[in-house]
Amino acid sequence: xxxxAASALAALAFVAVGPARAEITEAELDRAASAxxxxxxxxxxxxxxxxxxxxxxxxxxxxxAEHLKKLGIEVRTGVAHxxxxxxxxxxxxxxxxxxxxxxDALPVTEAVDVPFKSxxxxxxxxxxxxxxxxxxxxxxxxxxxGTAQALASMRQELPGTVVFLFQPAEEGTPDGTRGGAWLMxxxxxxxxxxxxxxxxxxxxxxxxxxxxxxxxxxxxAAADRFRIVVKGEQTHGSRxxxxxxxxxxxxxxxxxxxxLVSRQIDITRNPAVVSVGAIKxxxxxxxxxxxxxxxxxxRTFDPAVRQQIIDGITRTARDIAGASGATAEVEIGDDxxxxxxxxxxxxxxxxxxxxxxxxxxxxxxxxxxxxxxDFSFIGxxxxxxxxxxxxxxAGTDAxxxxxxxxxxxxxxxxxxxxxxxxxxxxxVDFLQGAGT
Length: 436
Ligand SMILES: [Zn+2]
Ligand SMILES: [Zn+2]
Hints:
The protein has 10 helices and 18 strands.
């Protein structure tokens, strides 16, 4: 063995067993989180008071981009319309981690009486609507800005690269086209550099302040939308035999769709939901109309079940309509969100970081969530972990708190520091190779 090879081996052994990496310490992370949280809350209040709908987040994106530039982070703007990407290169070599926040608000009129209450309005699908951060994306953006500030302050010690994704339109685009995370990825945000892992968080009403919720493997549902148009033949309400009644056929279809989950899906494997959200047909009490339109959503956690439901909706609508001489056209939207899957290995590896941030017993494995997230597109590309942070006041029943998307959705800001500590913790621990 040459001396060179022997010393290389010694170095390898040192890396494998030695604790002596000049690491960013837990105390440093705690200090950074406490130092940055007041500003995170200030940013969050500002974003809350000035919410913007999907693909219109120009003010928010401007503030984010300005902030990242000030920190000396390389910035790309206008990604997927209004998205911002920051790249922070650490002073030491190491892996690449992506951290994601969403910036968009919802067409909801705020009903919470806070001093920074939103009075914003906008136009949505042709109507004037109130605009509110009713899903808490204001806090996600603020937390990631705080994370960027903390990481930039320790960049010399940071082994690797951090990609910050501030994405638009997580809630979908106003015109129903593909946007958000999907479009950012299509525009190549993961091409250079390519992340080895990605992390994202969501504030969630059903968890109390101080708690983190997660689930390994499939976590949040795939969401698909469908539209069914039942066509009959218009006639007088007094003479139904003179035409074909699409209202009765549509009613039977609604009930028939409920047998997909209750009678046709193996419910011991994965849950599924099929809901009709709107039925529109007719104009007058004594006219049986020509057609009825129905729209709805279905949620699944498995691609095979998803396909089974697509086939089931199509078959149920067509065959039930056909039984009464009507026809049914079925459209499945092409803008679905896939299942948000937490990579099992990465989840296991990062759990200690979450537990350290929250404290013992405060990180809980939660049941499947039938809500959907476009973070799922990120999870399809790189091993990812998405987790929930509690924001409902301690001591109150979180299961009864106004949910995300409610006009009464309320964030107890004392919960946000945990979000910052957790995001900072998983990012630094991942880069420093904790748990490997
Ligand atoms: Zn939402
Ligand atoms: Zn959301």
